[in-house]
Amino acid sequence: MRNLRLLKSLRCLKLQGPGTPQCFTVRTDTGTLLIASEYSVTELDTRVVNEVSLTVERYLPEDGGGTVVGIQDLPDQESVCVATATGDVILYNLNTNQLECVGSVDSGLSAMSWSPDQELVTLTTGQDTIIMMTKNFEPITEVGIHQDDFGEGARKVRVWNRECVLQSTSETVNGLEQSLCWKPSGSLIAATQRHPNKHSVVFMEKNGLLHGDFTLPFGKEQVKVKELLWNSDSTVLAVWLEDMTPGEGGQVNTYIQLWTVGNYHWYLKQNLYFGSNPQRAPAYVSWDPERPLRLHLVTRGWVSLNYDWGWSTDRSHGEDGHDNANVAVIDGDKLLVSTFRQCVVPPPMCAYDLQLPAPVNLVTFQRQRTNELAALTADGHISVYGQGDLVMCSGTEKLSEPAAGLGGFRSVTHAPQLKTTYRYNQDSHSSKEEPLALRLLLWLREDVFLGVGACTDGPSQSNMLILGPSEAQGPQPTLEIRSHVEVEGHVISMCHSSKTGTVALQLEDGQIRKFLWDSLKPSVVEWQDSTGCRINFPDPCVQTALFTIEEVRKLSEYCSHRKWQYCYILVASNVSSFVVYDDFLLLTTHSHTCRCFRLTTLTVKGLQVALAADGGQNQNDQNDETLRRIERGSRIVTVVPQDTRLILQMPRGNLETIRHRALVLAQLRKWLDSQRFREAFECMRKLRINLNLIYDHNPKVFLESVETFLRQLDSINHINLFLTELKEEDTTTTMYPCPVNTTGQSAPAACGKKVDIVCDALRCTMESMDQHKYCLSILTSHVKKTVPELEVALQKVHELRVNPTSAANAVSAEEALKYLLFLVNVNELYEHSLGTYDFDLVLMVAEKSQKDPKEYLPFLNMLKTLEPNYQRYSIDKHLKRYRKALHHLSKCGEEHFTESLNLVKDQRLYSEALGLYPTDSPQYKALSCAYAEYLVEQQQAEQAGLLLWRCGEATRALQAFVGSASWRNALCVAEQIPLPSDQLALLARDLAGTKLIELRRYTEAAILLERYAKDCEEAISALITGAVWEEALRLVYLYNRQDIIETNFKPALLEGKPPFSQKAMFTRHKTRLSVVRELKEKARLELLDEDVPDCPEAELYSEASSVMTGSHAGSKYSHSNSRISSRSSKNRRKAERKKLSLKEGTPLEDMALLHALAEIIHSVDKMREVHSLLKALVLFQFDGQAGRLQHAYGEALQMIEVALPEVWQEGLQQTQAPITGPNSTANSIMASFQQPRPSTPPTPKMRNGVKWKLSILK
């Protein structure tokens, strides 16, 4: 749905050469034209650059009767090839200006054509033969055009291949004309054909079969087609026409039409009318070979015209709900208008079309009343359409019926009416002889148009025009030029900001200007940024827009080189289209994504990062509301204002409507902020947006507006749907993160879970409004709570059955129960009804279930015969509600205590049971003893001893305390029993020798031996064994046993030096780790260089430090654990130990080395208690041993501190991704899935604050 807009028109007048132009070629290196006439070859730019005569060396006759049949620029040879009708093929050297005849055909030449790669040249001769030669003019072959075996005929198309072998001949095509043009893409050949009732352009395949056509907008005998020309990218077909019947003065009119195709329909986008003056008629027309949308032509009067076209989507620019999202498509003398707010119809269909008296060249929408439009036609008139009374100014305009209303469908779009038709008055500043003198047009206000016209004062100037209705009375309203401003340079685009009224101009060299159109004296000034620097773009752009970002107005452009520029910063080079709407920037990329950015939170750096990573594999696309995947080649058509729809057009031309998540969420947030819950709910339900957002967006406002929410929805089904979708997740942080600067609030201050809060709030409000109307929703609020209140819901149903209401909007008990069965499984509901102990309710639910009465009636009848407490106990036990069952059973008397005790033991309800009996009761003591036995089995003997002690079982408590090495409690109980002193000493000796020393609690063992066993020697021995040197010395001198110093203390002191074998082991492991890492890096590089060259996933392999684990180095070991079951914890621990093997060559050797080094570091760091040993050595004058010990330990600590950064390198991370790659096997991949790589141990932290050195040692 794009139109062709004229960006630049270059007209060179004073270029008079000899004779009349016959043909020309574009010199690709300079852009100049090489024009051949009957006398010479002339090179033209804005002036005559060079000229070489063809008559001096008699290639052409001097009387001007010669004809040049072809001319072609050959940039590789720096020459121009010229073919004359007399048969000469001439090579014109552009450097030396020398002419060389490289060949001659006696029968003459009728045409010359070069292949697109300029490797071959074909010539047609006067004898109807084809000569094919190489680029060096060496003949390849010569064949006849007319083949006997295919028959004769002038209405056929013949196709030869590059070897000049005839490939196909079409069947006879009646009315086929001479114009032929092969589409550069190679798929079709364009030709013209006259039918009895029309004149058409037809397309044929290489095999000669017809493949589509379109009708020219002329009578069948009105015009003749002189030539068909495809542009270089096959998007535009130019048709050069001329009237067949001379008009007044015996002259004929000349036209050039530009046609494009979309969705299998051909559109006439531009119509250039050159009048009947023979000097203005084109002598030759050609597309630029390098710029697809540049058209060159030279008139017979030696006027050179260059037209640069650009694609544009003409859409309305409103941002409120009244704008219909109009898009206008030019199709000859019709405007096809689609109103996407009301309907989306695929082109070429539309909502309505406007018939105009002449072909349309430009269309623009008003910036204030955005549903009104104006169209500039080829005859220089501007037709204005809008709402109001129908005014027929010229009597020729027609308004068709809306296309969307045909076929019996009701039209939802009202077409605008023609309000007036202005005649555009050109002045001396515009060229009256040039087609499309007004090439850009903006409709800013009701009576203000901005236009760009050509300036006759210079070839590189533009004329900015401010147009308005003329006050002079006349037969037809006139649009006159109120003021004009000349601009140095060609203005190729204009953009207007509806918020600020600013108009920005872009020149063809990328310069940006600001047009001060609304001032007393309009002027054009340079666009400068906040620092005063001029803003220029490196490349010209075809689409421009103004918007504000980071509180500074910026200008954004989409370049013809697929680059999207922001100010003078290149933001992205992969953008295919963009549009600015309201607070959003939407764009499509060549990575087949549509991005939607919020301008209020957008930064240039953030935009660059987002677009640079577009389509990448590492970005989190799932919850990124700015990104949406789209079909390849999609372009933005328009956005429906104040809606959620974005219209895209596919490459073929069909349309697709998407609801971009960013637009949807922004609109939802607006509705929720304004408490328009119904619109928000309907949109979310239709687009499958999680309904939790209604609450999560602003919990406080929602809870304050529950009644408004219920009244707006006014549907029980919708309320139930909202309740059933509630979940504890906060969707504003997970699924739909709130942008910065939005009104979303955090969770409410009320305590509790979100689902419970919402259910309770809705239920309370519904009960206060109309509990009969909202009965089903109230039931839903009970069922949907985090702990479903099924009993309460069932009780409400039971109340409906017992006390039915006569309200008109009330529901019956049957309906309510049926609805509950829809929400809850019938068996679960039956169990919960049984838990209410209400047998009437149980029977009501059971009757609705599929249960056989023989299954439940005997059970219910049995329950009815039981005592109430025992009945409830039986029901709770049946429902496996053992705590409630125990509570009811405890009320059944002492005769059921044995049953209670068994229940407690089976279900381990000891704590609950102790709370149900008095502490002085025998039941309490029996339960405590049972609980103690259970705790002993659970290796919690100390807690068991406490229970036994407090319930009077001192002997059993003593055994429990001894078993748990709780020596203080054991001694207390022993004193309470009481035990004799000799038995107390034996108890102390037993606790110290068999329990505490085994547990390495030497200090506590020494206390027992000294104070209770009265054995100081054993106490000192225990302290020496535990290296508690200072306490051992205290007891030695306390009990005057200095002999122990020589016999036990000093020998133990000298033997107590900690081993430092870890130092050598640490060095060995560190060295091996460096080797393993080097080998893995080498293997990874070899894998990338040799096995997968130029692989786009190379970065994926580089991120995994264990790539070779699944391919090269790990092929020997990577499958060893693939079948280890995860059902046994013992097997899992064994597998972990096996995986982290220090054996050289194992796949996870690097991880095993890291874990081993971490363990060594921790063990060495714990040796800082060497401080006590050093003091003891110094005390007994073992200074040498103490010094060596301090030095060795200091060296070990220093070695570890230096090695830490090398072993735990910065950025060392561990991936949990499965090991894949080109050399991985199925077993290795499965093994990596089942047994992920162990995590890297964290960097050990040294306790550098612990003081351990002695300053008296050197």
Structure overview:
With 1258 residues, the chain is of the alpha+beta class. The protein contains 34 helices and 54 strands. An 8-stranded mixed β-sheet has the order 31-32-33-35-39-38-37-36, with no helix packed on it. It has a 5-stranded antiparallel β-sheet with strand order 27-28-29-30-34, with no helix packed on it. Strands 1-26-25-24 form a 4-stranded antiparallel β-sheet, with no helix packed on it. β16 and β17 (189-194) form a beta hairpin. The chain is elongated, with a radius of gyration of 47 Å. The two termini are 90 Å apart. 36% of the residues are buried. Residues 389-399, 401-409, 1091-1127 and 1213-1218 have low confidence and may be disordered.
Report the biggest beta sheet as strand number plus sense, adding barrel if it closes: 8 strands, mixed
From the alpha-carbon coordinates, what is the Rg to the nearest angstrom? Answer: 47 Å
Order of strands across the main sheet: 31-32-33-35-39-38-37-36
Q: Which word captures the global form? A: elongated
What share of residues are in beta strands?
Answer: 25-35%
SS elements, strand count: 54
- Overall structural class, as computed from helix and strand content, comes to alpha+beta
Q: CA-to-CA gap between the ends? A: 90 Å
As a percent range, the share of helical residues equals: 25-40%
Mean pLDDT level: 81
Detail the poorly predicted runs.
389-399, 401-409, 1091-1127, 1213-1218
How many helical elements?
A: 34
Domain ELP1 N-terminal second beta-propeller: 329-637
Region (Disordered): 1110-1142
GO biological process, one term: tRNA wobble base 5-methoxycarbonylmethyl-2-thiouridinylation
Main location: cytoplasm
